[in-house]
Structures are given as C-alpha cells and as structure tokens.
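Q: Could you write out the predicted structure for this multi-component system? I'm mainly interested in how the pieces pack against one another.
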Amino acid sequence: EPEVTQTPSHQVTQMGQEVILRCVPISNHLYFYWYRQILGQKVEFLVSFYNNEISEKSEIFDDQFSVERPDGSNFTLKIRSTKLEDSAMYFCASRSGQTYGYTFGSGTRLTVV
Amino acid sequence: DQQVKQNSPSLSVQEGRISILNCDYTNSMFDYFLWYKKYPAEGPTFLISISSIKDKNEDGRFTVFLNKSAKHLSLHIVPSQPGDSAVYFCAARGSSNTGKLIFGQGTTLQVKP
C-alpha cells in the first residue's frame, strides 16, 4: 500500500536553530498538508499546499514557518528559528483529489532544547 | 478553537462487546466527517467517513452515525477486539475548499481480552 514517508523520525535541535522536516507524499496525490500534535493535545492544522502554493495556513504558521515542494516529490517544512514551544510531533499528509481522507506519515518528533 | 469535541478522554470495553466513541461539533458548515485511529509513534490512519447528507455509513465492524440536528456523530465498533486499542480521533472537513481537517482531542480506547 502506498505510504507517506517522513524523515527524520526524531530530531533534537537547539533553540534558535533552523530545522527542515522532510516528507515524500504519495506520488499521484495533489494536496499536501502539515499538521502537528503537541504532547497531550489535539492534532492541529498548520498548512495546506496545492498546485505549488500555499492554499491555507493557520495562525500557528507564522513567518518562522515555510513549506516547499522543491523537486516534485519531496515536501518540506522549515522552521527558521525554533522555539521551545515548537516541540511536537509533526505529521505530513497527502490526498488525491478524489477523496477527503488523507494518508498521514508516521511523523517527526521535534524536540527543541 | 473547540469546533470538534470528544468529551471522553478514555473508554474501556471487554473484547467482543460494542465500543461507542462520541464526537460533537459546533460548525454547521462542516460537510464531511472522518474517524482516524492512531497507535503510539505512528501517524493517524483513516478508518471511516461520512458525508453530511447521510446519517449512517458502515464498513465491516465499523459504523459511523451522524445526527445533524444534534451536531453529533458516533463510531461503533462491533465486536471490539484487543487490536482496536488505540487513540481514535474524530475530524471534520473545514468549510474552505482546501481539505483542511479539524480534529477532536481524541479518545483512548482500551479493549480488554
């Protein structure tokens, strides 16, 4: 079964450092998303991406965050200057245009120290 | 933002019995609802969905019921199995066209052998 692949599975970074979280969505999917889940809280929407541009972003997705689909297969989330409160599981997801259900990746656990 | 609420943080049932997980929402513009299951250290996995124009959708042991007037949906698992033990998230498709999902807080289901 096709999978969404995320790397790394765990990233530890110093506060103020830049991090890039990587995702390879399912190849024929058209819509791409990043969500995050802070420990013990709900899964929260960050950003949606379609046709090589951001289609919607949440208030969490401020100027410190950016997304890119540099080569038609990878989909990255960059946090420019990490803060302690950015520590969370970050999930990438993709969907085809045919369904509303997403396929999620296994997540990247980001720990900011 | 409490548009989707799962008021029971946990549920414990005996193997073979019915599990009923509940979800309430406040936004009448939601047009599609989904249930996801999540194991530790994995991403959410799509289980079953329902359009707002229906009141029931069934897939094997899983049935989702939607009561639009009460803004309530429920997931029934019959019969429950120990492998069903996981966190279950209710999600609603936002009113934008981006496919953004709004998640509840999740309910941890434990099925005892």
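A: Regarding packing and overall arrangement: The longest strand of chain A covers residues 43-50.
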